[in-house]
Amino acid sequence: MDDSPRPPSDQSPPPPPPPAQFLKGIVGKRVIVRLTSGVDYRGSACVLGVFWMMLIDAWYRSTIEHVNGIVTNRYGDAFIRGNNVLYISAAEPM
Amino acid sequence: MDPSATGIQEPFDLIRLSLSERVFVKLRGDRQLTGILHAYDGHMNLIMSDVEETIMIVDPESAANGHGVVNIAKRKMEMLFVRGDGVILVSPPART
User: Fold this and answer.
1) Could you say which DSSP state residue B9 is in?
2) Which residues of chain A have a CB within 8 Å of the CB of B22?
3) Would you place residue A3 in the very low, low, confident or very high pLDDT band (cuts 50, 70, 90)?
4) Residues of A60-89 as b/e, b for ≥16 C-beta within 10 angstroms?
5) CB contact under 8 A, A47 and B11
6) How confident is the model at residue B3 (pLDDT cuts 50, 70, 90)?
7) Closest approach of A20 to chain B, Cα-based (Å)
């Protein structure tokens, strides 16, 4: 992707800022989600709810829950409320 | 489940598809619920019935010793309103 600033144009809307671009880019990819409690979830990001460029909530598939590196649960589908999320890390190339 | 096939556009649609089904809910404070989901809103406030709550309690004495014995308490409730801000995770039953 071309990162150089483009001249303003009336036709195309401005590109999304990098964080929003990241959230778009991880859809369908495997991710590691860490919650503020320290629990990790590894799964595929399926549908993300973004409002005012903030992650509100998200749905992950084939999710494995880890506490201190130990698998504690598995979910086919998991909906995670966004306020609990500390970070989302891409587990495969974007 | 394929999001394009089931018409899912936002994460809440997953919850909508789980209405009237038994769901697993993980809450703050080491609590989890399983029950039948009747209603929800944008805050993730939930109305559930036939609920079993499981509470994980770490025994403070054993935690100080570094053993960390976890006691599990369970209770059942017929009808429950869950305030949305306590919700961490909602998982519907496995579908085929």
Assistant:
1) -
2) none
3) low
4) bbebbbbeeeeeebebebbbbbbbbbeebe
5) yes
6) low
7) 16
Residue range B40-64, pLDDT digits in tens = 999 999 999 999 999 999 887 777 7
Complex ipTM tops 0.85: no
pTM: 0.82
Helix H or strand E segment including B12:
helix B12-16
pLDDT band at B96 (very low <50, low <70, confident <90, very high): very low
Report which residue type is found at B65: N
In angstroms, the separation between the Cα of residue A45 and the nearest Cα of chain B is 10
Chain B contacts of A44, Cβ < 8 Å?
none
Pairwise CB contact (< 8 Å): A77 & B88: no
Query: Which of B18, B88, B95, B96 is the mutation pick for testing A, counting most A CBs within 10 A?
Result: B88
